[in-house]
Amino acid sequence: MTTEAQEHYINALISEYASVEDDKIFYNDFMEKLGEASLDTLSTKEASALIQGLIGIKVPLEMQCGKIMMVEKDEIMRGQTMGRLDECMHNCEIDFNECEYLKNQE
Question: What gap in Å lies between CA 11 and CA 89, rounded to an integer?
């Protein structure tokens, strides 16, 4: 059986990001392939696979400088936890020590 935490996380992943339509399509396809009608009937392993699939759907991330990049949802979560500079360090192709935007913020 799916845990309460897994159900909460899945519901957040399919409703709180710019990829809502893609998330719903992925979710419905996943459930259809398993022949399941609701989350609470999934095993914890199946729920984990669903979570990993939903996390892998890319969403737009607006960097501090205004550049928009497509990243997986876990990168958005990392930025929410670790801060905006961490987003730059992990996602931008420009070394943060060379970033003109950050240099101008000092």
Answer: 29
Alpha helices in the chain, H assignment, sequence order: 4-13, 20-34, 44-55, 73-82, 84-91, 100-105
Residue 94 contacts by C-beta under 8 Å, 6 or more apart in sequence? Answer: none
For 15-67, how does the pLDDT look when each residue is reduced to its tens digit (9 = 90+)?
Answer: 989 999 999 999 999 999 999 889 989 999 999 999 999 999 999 998 888 88
Q: Which domain, by its residues, includes 93?
A: 59-105
Q: 19 and 46 share a domain?
A: yes
Residue 59, SS3 per DSSP? strand
Burial of 69 (C-beta count, 10 Å sphere; 0-12/13-18/19+): middle
